[in-house]
Amino acid sequence: MVHGNRISKLGHKHNLKHGHTRNENGKSIVSPEYAAWANMLQRCYNENITDYKDYGGRGIKVASHWLEFINFITDMGLKPSSKHSLDRINVDGHYEPSNCRWATRKEQLANRRKFAAITNYTDTELIAELERRGYQVAKKQSN
Length: 143
Known about the structure:
This protein is α+β, with helices and mostly antiparallel strands. The protein has one domain (about 1-15, about 20-115). Helices cover about 25% and strands about 15% of the residues. The chain has helices spanning about 30-45, 70-75, 105-110, 125-130; strands spanning about 1-5, 5, 20-25, 25-30, 85-90, 100-105. The longest helix is centred in the N-terminal third of the chain and has 14 residues, at about 30-45. It is elongated. The N and C termini lie far apart (about 55 Å).
């Protein structure tokens, strides 16, 4: 499955050519769709990355047939534009065809998990999180 910071041949039973990876001068070049697929797998299965706690750590999984890139790209198709990225419609659901779409940043910002509880955040953390999500936060004026 996943070994350290790299993904081994997850489900690759066939050596299929899909045209989304190539090697140029010893450097691996991947398509945006392939990068989205690989990042999805990392978030769900690589415990050594920061985002794991928000995905695999919460039980989010990838549909078994999406462990092969050819199935993922067949189901999802190409990104409509460079402004789109992979998004789960139900943020608590798995990565699977019925729950994924290519979405813009604006669409994704409107589709975020709610705060666990306000009491889990310091004022500074809460303000930083709101700003990260695109909210303008009025700073408290000193007396």
